[in-house]
Specification:
Layout (H helix, E strand, L loop, with lengths): L16 E3 L2 E3 L2 H12 L4 H5 L21 H7 E5 L2 E7 L6 H7 L2 H4 L3 E7 L4 E7 L5 H10 L8 H4 L8 H30 L4 H25 L1 H12 L6 H20 L7 H33 L4 E5 L5 E5 L8 E4 L9 E5 L2 E4 L1 H4 L4 E4 L4 E2 L4 E2 L4 E5 L5 H8 L11 H30 L1 H14 L3 H20 L2 E3 L2 H8 L3 E5 H5 E12 L4 H11 L5 H9 L9 E7 L3 E6 L2 E6 L13 E7 L2 E12 L3 H7 L4 E5 L7 H7 L3 E5 L4 H13 L4 E5 L5 H6 L2 E6 L11 E4 L6 H34 L5 H31 L4
Parallel strand pairs: 17-24, 17-26, 24-25, 26-27, 27-28
Antiparallel strand pairs: 1-2, 3-4, 4-6, 5-6, 7-8, 7-9, 9-15, 10-13, 10-15, 11-12, 11-14, 16-28, 18-23, 19-20, 20-21, 21-22, 22-23
Length: 796
C-alpha cells in the first residue's frame, strides 16, 4: 500500500523524508510540520488529515519588488505608523484546515497582528508590523507555509469579476460538444425511429460514436471538474456534499456509454451527457451572476448613503450623500465620527482611532498635511479634511461586517446545510433501492433511472432559497434607508419581541427643538467660542444648539478637546476653558426636571440652554402599530417628559431616565435574562454598548457617519416612524423562505417520483435542475417585490 505525506497527503513514490516518526514528501512539508508543532498548532492535522499544502520550491526572491514604495502603496489597503493591512489572493485555500491555519498566523509570527480569510474569494487579509516584517518577507513566509499569494495588477487594483471566466469557458465547451454530439447522433436516432438500416451509416457508425466519445471526454473531465473537486474534497474530509450524487450520475452515464460503444450494444449517452453538463453549468452561471448582482447592489448602491458634512471655502456647511463626494471636496468630521474617505487634514488636531481597520485601539495624532485613511474615527475636536479618493462603499461595508463585531448565532443557513446533508443521504438511499429494483425488472433501463435520480435530486434550489430571498430583502430595505449588516440579521429581526428606544436623537428630532437660555448674559466673545466648540460634537443637543445660536461661526481653533461619556465635553477656545453638558459636569445640581445643556467657563457656571424636545411626527401612530411588542424607553436625560411619553406610548412596559451608557447596557442585559429577544434603537453615541449587547442593534442616524460597527442595522432617522414596516417585512421574508423551501422540495419529490418510475431521462433531469433554481429566484423576486409594494410602494 502506497504511503502518503503526513502534511499534504501526496504520494511518497518520488521522495521520502522521515522525521518525528512520520514521513513527508519533501523538506518543505517537514519544515511546515516543525513550525506548527513548535508553536503548538498541531490541531491543524486534527481538523483534517493530510490537509496541508506542499510549499512551492520555486525561487521566492520574486517578491522583493513588493518593498518598492510605489508598489507597496498600491498593494496595501492601509498603512499607518507601524501597522499595515494587506489583502492577498491565495488560490490554494481549500478546506477548514487552511482557514484555521491562515487565521492563526499571529501565533506563528509575532509581527502579524491578525489575519482573516474570505473562503469564497480565496483571500486573506493580514495586519502586520511593517517596521519589523517587510511585505516581501510576509509573502515569502506564506509561500514557505504552502500558501503562495498571487499578486498581479488585477489583484492590486482590487477588481472583482462580475462573472467567472473559467466557468464560462467550461460552459462553452459543453455547449459545443452538446451541439456537435447531437449532430453526429442524428443518423442513429433517425434509423432507430424509422426502423430502417442505412449502408453508409452502418459503415461509419463506429467513427461517429468515437467522435462523440472524443467530444464528451473533455466535457466530463474539464467542464465537470468543479463537481469532481467538490465531491472529492468533501469525501476526503468525511463529508457527503450535494455534488457527490451528481458526480456518481456523470460517471455512470460516461462509463455506461463507453461500455455500449466498445461492445457495439448502442451509441451510449455521450450527447445526453454533454447536454446534461451544458444545462447544469448554465444553472451555475445563472446563480453566480445573480449572487454577483446582489453583492454589487449591496456594496455600491444601497449601503451607507448617510450624509456627510461638506464645507466650502467660506465655512458654509452642507449635508450631502457620500456618493456625491468628489476629489477636492472639503468635509467636516466631528468627534466620534467615522472618516468615510481617504483625505488630507487641512484644519484641526487629528487624533485618529484606527481600531475599525487594524483591530488595535491605539490613537494616532495627525497634523495639517497628513493623510488620513477611510475607516479611522476622530477622537477629539472637529477636523476639516480634503478628499483625495472617492468613497469606496464596499470598503465601508467590509469594516462594518468585520468578524470582531459580529454576534455569532446560528440560523437558517445552518438549517439549510443540515437539510442538504441529510437530503443527500436520502437521495443516495432512494437511488440504491431503485437501482436494485430496476436491475431485476429492466437491467438496461436501470442506468437511465439511476442517473436521472442522481441528477434531478440536486438540492441546489433548496440551498438557494434563503440567500436569494434575504439578498432581495436586504436590497429593498437598503433602498428604503434601512441598512442591514447581513442575512442572519433579517432572521433575527423576525424573532424580536421587545423594542428599546433611546429618547434623544431617536424618537426626538436631532436638530429641531424649542430652546431658551437661562443664566448670566452671554457676551459675543463667549457666544462665538461656544458655537465654535459645539460644532465639534455630533450629539443631537449640540447640533440643535449650533443651529440655534444665530451668531456667525468664527471657526476658532479648539484645543484639548475632551469628552466625558454620558456627561458632555470640555475644551479650550481662544485661551478660555469651557465645559458643556450635564449639570454635574459644571458642578451644579439640577433642581428642575428638564432637558438642558449647561455652560461652564473657567470653572464658573454661566447658564444653561433649556430644550423642549420636538418628537418625530406620527410617533403615537407608530406605537399603536407596534402592538404585540414590549416597548421600553431609555434616556440619559431626567424624567421631565415621562408623563408626555406615557400618553404617547400607552402600551409602554418600562421607562428609565438619567441612564449612563453602562446603565443602558445593564438594562438590556436584564431584559435578555428574562428570555426576551431585544432590539435596541439608539443614535450610536452613548448607546454603543447597549447596541452591541442587544440581539439587534439599530443605529439611528440623520446626517452623520457616527455609526458603531457593533450595530446590526443603520437606519435613517426620518424612517423611525416606519419601523413597524421593516419589522413586518422581515417576518414576511421568513415566510417567503419557507415557501421557497416548499417549492424546491416539491420539485424534488415530483421529479424523483417520475425518475424512480422510469419516466425521466438524464437529459430532461439536467434541464429540470436549473429550471428549479430559476423558478426559486423568480418566485423570490416576485414575492419580495409584491410584499414591498404593500410597505414601501416600490414600483420596480
Amino acid at each position: 500500500m502506497a504511503e502518503n505525506c503526513f502534511h499534504c497527503g501526496q504520494d511518497l513514490s518520488k521522495e521520502r523524508v522521515s522525521f518525528d516518526e512520520k514521513v513527508f514528501c519533501c523538506v518543505g512539508c517537514k519544515s511546515v510540520y516543525e513550525i506548527l508543532n513548535i508553536h503548538d498548532l498541531g490541531n491543524f492535522y486534527e481538523l483534517n488529515k493530510r490537509s496541508g499544502i506542499r510549499p512551492d520550491d520555486e525561487n521566492i526572491s520574486q517578491f522583493d519588488y513588493l518593498d518598492a514604495p510605489e508598489i507597496f502603496d498600491k498593494v496595501t489597503d492601509f498603512s499607518e505608523g507601524n501597522t499595515s493591512l494587506v489583502t492577498l489572493k491565495i488560490p490554494v485555500i481549500h478546506c477548514s484546515s487552511c482557514i484555521w491555519l491562515l487565521e492563526s498566523l499571529q501565533n506563528l509570527n509575532a509581527n502579524i497582528n491578525y489575519s482573516q480569510v474570505n473562503f469564497t474569494r480565496k483571500t486573506v487579509q493580514i495586519s502586520f508590523n511593517q517596521k519589523e516584517l517587510k511585505l516581501s518577507e510576509l509573502a515569502k513566509f506564506l509561500t514557505n507555509l504552502g500558501y503562495k499569494p498571487v499578486i498581479n495588477l488585477e489583484t492590486a487594483e482590487k477588481k472583482e469579476e462580475s462573472y467567472d471566466k473559467t466557468l464560462l469557458i467550461k460552459w462553452a465547451i459543453a455547449g459545443f460538444a452538446f451541439g456537435n454530439g447531437m449532430f453526429f447522433s442524428y443518423p442513429e436516432y433517425a434509423a432507430e425511429v424509422m426502423g430502417t438500416s442505412d449502408f453508409w451509416f452502418d459503415k461509419y457508425k463506429s467513427l461517429f460514436r468515437f467522435i462523440m466519445f472524443l467530444l464528451a471526454t473533455p466535457v466530463v473531465f474539464y467542464s465537470a471538474s468543479d463537481y469532481f473537486k467538490s465531491a472529492w474534497f468533501g469525501l476526503k474530509h468525511k463529508i457527503v456534499n450535494i455534488d457527490v450524487p451528481i458526480v456518481l450520475g456523470i460517471l455512470m452515464l460516461y462509463g455506461r456509454s463507453i461500455y455500449e460503444v466498445l461492445t457495439d450494444y448502442g451509441a451510449g449517452y455521450f450527447d445526453t451527457l454533454c447536454g446534461l453538463l451544458f444545462f447544469m453549468l448554465m444553472g451555475k452561471l445563472f446563480q453566480k451572476r445573480t449572487y454577483s448582482a446582489l453583492s454589487y447592489d449591496r456594496d455600491y448602491k444601497s449601503f451607507y448613503p448617510i450624509a456627510v458634512t461638506k464645507v466650502d471655502f467660506n465655512g458654509k456647511q452642507e449635508n450631502i450623500l457620500l456618493s456625491e463626494l468628489k476629489v477636492g471636496d472639503r468635509i467636516m468630521v466631528r468627534n466620534q465620527e467615522i472618516i468615510p474617505v481617504d483625505a488630507i487634514l487641512i484644519n484641526g488636531e487629528g487624533n485618529i482611532d484606527n481600531s475599525f481597520i487594524t483591530g488595535e485601539s491605539a490613537s494616532i495624532p495627525k497634523t495639517a498635511g497628513d493623510k488620513i485613511f477611510a475607516g479611522g474615527k476622530q477622537m477629539g475636536s472637529a477636523l476639516e479634511l480634503e478628499v483625495i479618493k472617492t468613497v469606496n462603499q464596499s470598503y465601508l461595508t467590509q469594516l462594518w461586517n468585520k468578524e470582531a463585531f459580529k454576534k455569532h448565532e446560528t440560523g437558517l443557513d445552518t438549517l439549510t446545510n443540515h437539510i442538504s446533508k441529510y437530503f443527500t443521504f436520502v437521495i443516495l438511499g432512494i437511488t440504491l433501492i431503485s437501482g436494485i429494483y430496476w436491475i431485476q425488472v429492466d437491467f438496461e433501463k436501470m442506468f437511465q433511472v439511476v442517473a436521472a435520480i442522481l441528477i434531478i435530486a440536486c438540492p441546489c434550489a433548496l440551498a438557494l432559497s434563503a440567500p436569494f430571498t434575504f439578498g432581495h430583502v436586504m436590497r429593498i430595505l437598503g433602498r428604503n434607508k434601512f441598512y442591514v449588516k447581513d442575512a442572519l440579521t433579517i432572521e433575527k429581526i423576525s424573532k424580536i419581541g421587545t423594542l428599546v428606544f433611546d429618547k434623544t436623537g431617536t424618537i426626538t428630532h436631532q436638530k429641531r427643538a424649542d430652546i431658551k437660555y437661562e443664566g448670566a448674559p452671554l457676551q459675543e466673545f463667549d457666544l462665538q467660542n461656544i458655537k465654535s466648540l459645539v460644532k465639534n460634537s455630533n450629539h443631537p443637543l449640540s447640533k440643535a444648539l449650533y443651529d440655534f445660536l444665530e451668531i456667525e461661526d468664527g471657526y476658532f481653533p479648539v484645543e484639548n478637546f475632551k469628552e466625558i461619556p454620558g456627561k458632555g465635553y470640555e475644551a479650550s477656545v481662544r485661551g478660555t476653558i469651557y465645559k458643556i453638558g450635564s449639570s454635574t459636569l459644571v458642578g451644579q445640581e439640577s433642581r428642575n426636571l428638564e432637558t438642558a445643556v449647561h455652560i461652564g467657563k473657567n470653572d464658573e457656571f454661566l447658564g444653561k440652554f433649556i430644550f423642549k424636545n420636538e418628537y418625530r411626527e406620527n410617533l403615537k401612530s407608530l406605537f399603536k402599530r407596534l402592538y404585540g411588542y414590549k416597548i421600553h424607553i431609555l434616556s440619559g436625560d431626567n424624567s421631565s417628559e415621562e408623563k408626555m411619553l406615557k400618553t404617547m406610548i400607552p402600551n409602554v412596559e418600562g421607562m428609565a431616565f438619567n441612564q449612563s451608557p453602562e446603565d443602558k447596557l445593564n438594562y438590556i442585559k436584564n431584559l435578555q435574562d428574562s428570555n426576551q429577544k431585544v432590539a435596541m434603537l439608539g443614535d450610536g453615541l452613548n448607546d454603543a454598548g447597549a447596541l452591541k449587547q442587544s440581539n439587534i442593534g439599530i443605529a439611528v442616524a440623520d446626517d452623520t457617519n457616527s455609526f458603531t460597527p457593533s450595530s446590526d442595522v443603520i437606519m435613517s432617522g426620518e424612517k423611525v416612524v416606519d419601523l413597524h414596516k421593516y419589522l413586518q417585512f422581515s417576518k414576511d421574508a421568513m415566510t417567503i423562505v419557507k415557501m421557497t423551501f416548499a417549492i424546491s422540495l416539491f420539485y424534488n419529490v415530483i421529479g424523483v417520483s417520475f425518475a424512480v418510475a422510469g419516466y425521466v431521462s438524464p437529459l430532461f433531469a439536467a434541464i429540470l435542475m436549473p429550471i428549479s433554481s430559476i423558478s426559486v429566484v423568480a418566485f423570490t423576486s416576485a414575492a419580495t417585490w409584491y410584499r414591498s409594494i404593500k410597505y414601501f410602494r416600490i414600483k420596480r
